[in-house]
């Protein structure tokens, strides 16, 4: 009997290999492979101990949030970019370090194999979400692209916890044959275990990566651009709205300066001579390209009921020189027409809304006790007074 997992399809999870209706644990597990019903990181062993230090394959499971509010320490599945951000299993513990938790141990070993260029030892990763009790949704066959060491806030203790965050790439394949996974787990010869693997997996082992890219409508509704009214995130946003225009512009520039993933420089313009924009600078692509991309930015400190209109965005677009990019930042949201003009006319402008700002602040650990970090905010405002 052929059993496949297809991208985006939901399957029954009864949590038992003995339940004939189970399409998760019963399908994946075989005698000796040792798949557990919990936790989120579930490595499966080689039955014949072909390799002792790495698993035959790994199942990752994410519990979908029912509240709809996202934090940087939630897992993120983004089909449009073919990427998944998945947190390791480190928890608040008086003795254990982040890399002493079972799941993180396996992730660290796998990433070491990747860095050592031992592709034949690297296992495939299958990612699932749990949208509701008794159901899992297949999100794709993945590879570990990067293992980032960072911090998250423990939901119980509110303490910062050091943990791994996996950057996964979803490979461009619609379905995965479970027989291939079983072949790996039961294999005797490392050179033969992927004979029945999907082509994209064989290509990956040869050094070629074809990741999934799914087109999606990028027009966001108002409720997708703002935190829920009267939520903790909304109160943080109101702190930004309460700043003076000059203070707010300085805060936004300070935020961009703290981004570490891309080398960049950014300068705030003088309030009386902004020329239609509030900051400018350039991003530098990493070595060996080392190519600079110039940008202009504009900010609008609007209340949540005041939308950014096409006329506001057009002002920034009109200031862009050939080859320049634009960044528009607001504490509010963009109308459908404003977004359509940017997308349909192909303007090189990134639109950052209120909820994007909240996410950025949390990602940079600048929200503490559900409000802006006082020490950071005061230091930024001091720069305005000088």
From TrEMBL:
InterPro entries: RE_AspBHI_N (IPR041409), Restrct_endonuc-II-like (IPR011335), Restrct_endonuc_IV_Mrr (IPR007560), tRNA_endonuc-like_dom_sf (IPR011856), Type_IV_Methyl-Rstrct_Enzyme (IPR052906). GO terms for molecular function: DNA binding; restriction endodeoxyribonuclease activity. GO terms for biological process: DNA restriction-modification system. Coiled coil: none annotated. It holds the Pfam family Mrr_cat. Residues 242-361 form the Restriction endonuclease type IV Mrr domain. It comes from the Bacteria. Residues 19-206 form the Restriction endonuclease AspBHI N-terminal domain. This is Restriction endonuclease.
């Amino acid at each position: 009997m052929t059993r496949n997992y297809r991208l985006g399809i939901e399957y029954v999870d009864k949590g038992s290999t003995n339940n004939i209706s189970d399409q998760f644990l019963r399908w994946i597990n075989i005698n000796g492979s040792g798949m557990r019903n919990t936790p989120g990181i579930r490595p499966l062993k080689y039955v014949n101990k072909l390799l002792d230090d790495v698993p035959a394959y790994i199942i990752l499971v994410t519990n979908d949030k029912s509240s709809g509010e996202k934090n940087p320490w939630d897992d993120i599945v983004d089909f449009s970019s073919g990427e998944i951000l998945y947190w390791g299993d480190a928890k608040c513990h008086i003795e254990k370090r982040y890399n002493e938790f079972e799941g993180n141990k396996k992730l660290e070993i796998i990433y070491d194999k990747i860095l050592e260029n031992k592709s034949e030892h690297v296992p495939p990763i299958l990612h699932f979400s749990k949208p509701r009790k008794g159901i899992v949704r297949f999100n794709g066959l993945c590879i570990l692209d990067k293992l980032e060491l960072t911090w998250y806030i423990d939901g119980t203790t509110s303490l910062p916890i050091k943990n791994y965050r996996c950057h996964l790439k979803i490979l461009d394949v619609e379905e995965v044959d479970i027989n291939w996974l079983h072949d790996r787990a039961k294999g005797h010869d490392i050179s033969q275990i992927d004979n029945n693997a999907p082509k994209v997996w064989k290509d990956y082992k040869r050094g070629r990566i074809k990741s999934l890219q799914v087109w999606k409508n990028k027009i966001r509704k108002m409720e997708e651009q703002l935190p829920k009214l009267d939520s903790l995130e909304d109160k943080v946003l109101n702190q930004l709205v309460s700043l003076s225009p000059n203070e707010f512009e300085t805060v936004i520039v300070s935020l961009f300066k703290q981004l570490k993933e891309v080398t960049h420089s950014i300068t705030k313009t003088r309030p009386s001579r902004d020329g239609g924009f509030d900051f400018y600078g350039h991003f530098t692509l990493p070595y060996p390209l080392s190519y600079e991309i110039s940008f202009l930015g504009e900010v609008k400190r609007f209340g949540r009921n005041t939308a950014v209109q096409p006329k506001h965005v057009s002002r920034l677009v009109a200031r862009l020189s050939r080859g320049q990019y634009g960044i528009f930042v607001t504490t509010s949201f963009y109308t459908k027409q404003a977004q359509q003009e940017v997308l349909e006319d192909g303007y090189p402008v990134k639109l950052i809304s209120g909820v994007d700002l909240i996410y950025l602040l949390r990602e940079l650990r600048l929200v503490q006790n559900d409000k802006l970090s006082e020490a950071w905010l005061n230091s930024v405002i001091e720069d305005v007074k000088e």
